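Reviewers of the previous submission asked for a worked example of the structure-prediction workflow described in the proposal, so we include one complete record here. The input consisted solely of the amino acid sequence. No template or homolog information was supplied to the procedure at any stage.
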Amino acid sequence: MKFGVFLPISGRAAGPDTLMEAARSAEAQGFDAVWSADRVVTPWQIHTSYPYSENHEFIVPPDRPFLDSLTCLAFLAGCTEKITLGISVLVLPYRHPLSWTRVAASIEHLSKGRLIMGVGVGWMEEEFAALGVSFKDRGRMTDEQLQILSRLWTEEHASFNGQFYRFQDLAFYPKPIQQPRIPIWVGGEGSAAQQRAAKYGDAWFPYFVAITPGELRAGYDNVLRLAAEAGRDPRQVRLTCCRPVEVTRDPVPQDESQLRGNPQQLLEALNVYRQIGVDHLALQFMVPRWPERMEQIERFAREVMPHLQGDFTK
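From that input alone, the workflow returned the following C-alpha cells.
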C-alpha cells in the first residue's frame, strides 16, 4: 500500500519555505505522494454543509491564505525529484478544460511524469455562484470534461461537440509522458461519483471523514460492478482514498470508522485497508499548527509506514 500526505497550502503557514520543507521531507521519509487541495475563492458566509469535517463547517477561515493548487504543484515540480505530485481534488466545473488540461500537461512534463489528477464536481454552492458556474449542472459539466481530456491528451486532431463545451480540430502538445494519459482519480463518495469513476477513472478516490473498511470495500465493489456494466475491465479502476488521521502517544479507544491511535493501533487499523485492496491512502493529519503536524507526520513515517509498505500482516 502506498501513502501520500496533504500539503500545507492553506493557513498562516502556507508559503514557499513551508511547502518546500513539507514536500522534501515527505520525499525523504518515503511517502509516495504529496497532495494539494483546491479552492478558487472563499466566501465570508458559507451556508453549504461541508462534507469533509465532523461538524460540517469549512475548516479554513476566509481571512487565511489559500494558495492555488496547480501553482503549488508546478512550484514543487522544481523542488523535488521523485515524489508524485497530486491534487485532491481539482473541481473541474470551475475551469475551462482547454485551460486546466494545458496547465496539468505542463506540470506533468516539467516534473518528468510525476502528476496524478484527482478530480471532482465540487460542493460549495456559494463558490459556484461567485464564479458564475451552474451548481446544478456541475455533474454533467464534469462528465464532458472527462471525455475531453482523453481526447486532448491522446488524439492528434481533437474535437468535441457537447452541451457545455465545443471545439474543432485542435492540436494539443506536449502529450503526457505517462501513457495513455495522466492518471485520473475520480473523487466523490456517492453513487454518481462511483458511476463516474467506473466510467472514466483510473481510480475511485473518495474522502471519508468516517467509514469502516467494510463500507469502503462495498463502495468499491459497486464501482467494479459499474465498470463492468460500462464495458470496461474492472481491473483498470483502482481503490484509493483520502482519510483524516491522528497519531497519539498513548493508546486510545478504537473505532474502526476512524484513523486515530498510537503507532501500533494505526498499524493494525491500516493493515485492514491493505487487506481490502486499498492501493493508495492520502492522509490529512488533523493538527492545526504546522510544527505539531510535522511531528505527527514524521512519527507516522518512522513508526507506521515502513511496516505497511513491506510484508507486515496482523
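The chain has a mean pLDDT of 96. We consider this example representative of the routine output the project will generate in years two and three.
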